[in-house]
Amino acid sequence: MTPPDRASLRTGHPLSNRILQDFSADTTPVQRGGAPLRFGVNYTPTRGWFHHWLDFDIDQVSRDLDSIAELGADHIRAFALWPVFQPNRSLIRPQALADLAAVVDAAAERGLDVSVDGLQGHLSSFDYVPAWAQTWHQQNLFTSELVIEGQSAYLEAIASTLAGRPNFLGMSIGNEFSQFASPLHPNRSELTVAQADTWISTMLAACAAGAPGLEHHHSEYDMCWFGGEHSFTPALAARRGHSTTIHSWIFNGTSKLYGGMSEQSLRLAEYLIELGRGWSTDPNRPIWLQEIGAPAPHVSAEDAPAFLEGSLKYALDTENLWGVTWWSSHDVDTALADFPSLEYSLGLIGNDRTIKPQGHAFAKVAAEVRTAPAPARRSTALVLEVGDETLAPGRATCEPGGAFFEAWMSLAMDGARPSVILASQAGDASFLAARGITTVLTTREVSAGSAI
Description:
Elements: H1 16-24, E1 38-42, H2 58-70, E2 75-79, H3 82-85, H4 94-109, E3 113-119, E4 122-123, E5 126-127, H5 145-162, E6 168-174, H6 193-210, H7 222-226, H8 234-239, E7 244-248, H9 254-258, H10 263-266, H11 268-279, E8 287-292, H12 304-315, E9 321-326, H13 357-369, E10 380-384, H14 403-413, E11 418-422, H15 429-435, E12 439-441, H16 443-448
Parallel strand pairs: 1-2, 1-9, 2-3, 3-6, 7-8, 8-9, 10-11, 10-12
Antiparallel strand pairs: 4-5
InterPro entries: GH
Organism: Paeniglutamicibacter terrestris
Protein name: Cellulase family glycosylhydrolase
């Protein structure tokens, strides 16, 4: 990736000199195994947000897709709304499936591939659960046989509807659906780690039954990596599905502790990617940075282009990265009520379809990264100790401010380009060789200042 125009970075920002120096140095290239890095956006419709499925208008969608294509994106992540598509357990609406197929076809006309999330589930602070699984019909969303039957049929129906389209990449089960299992959720569906594993495997099998041979995923949010009591564990995130999906949001405490334009915030996606790699048992498993954005007020509108370029510079310096999908394509219409304030301005494109400064920054990076060679392998690894590696009860050490987070960031800011390995892998010479790791460090060594 070539250095960005210096005018696009704020010269008055405390980190501007560091960022400019980093970009001016030789940067690590990003083409993976001959396959160009994928660069896309999470599609947020301008008219009606995801409620647009209720009064679907392909002309409006097509205009949205035109503006996305202007950015140089090569794919979108599209979201169905579960209650709209399956309002009754035995009714998967043919018209909703046809509307989704129309989106995929319109994307193909503009050179855009599409990955589809089925169980929404949860989007932008709102939950969407059909009536047949709640209130008087209250069911556990992960363990009820009736719900599992309905979910499986629904995901298979979407996948089979789209399976013949060459620009259909595959499915994600749903957007951060595991948040329904969080101890913090007001209407929690409790389950064990073993039950979470069974549910993920069942849902992925339904996707594969509908669209064999395509790339099917499940997506997780921070609680998976940081919450010791959460049933959806890092091991499940990094070992189930086609690739490990990463959702990087600095409002997880990073910006509060360190600042929105701090090195810690700029490196959060890189850190989460390496954390996900550390939990994988496959040295070559693909990783998809499925969500990353510049949320206000954690990042100001003025700083958003620099945040995009700075955070992606670090994220792109990682191995086995399939691609980046920025959140989001378009701003949410301010006429819609009750969203958290940050949700309205996350788009690369305004709600009027005008490309914003951070959209221009995205287009610039997109044009530069696809033909660059692969980054150098990371030969230094920090050992992660969390107790039982199936349950990961000690994973809070990985959250912003935690001992492992602090140690990894310290190494990164000293130029070590650290990766992550589990304690069980630290003595496995063949695994370390497969990863290209020659230096293994502990958090105690880093904290003592004896690491480098």
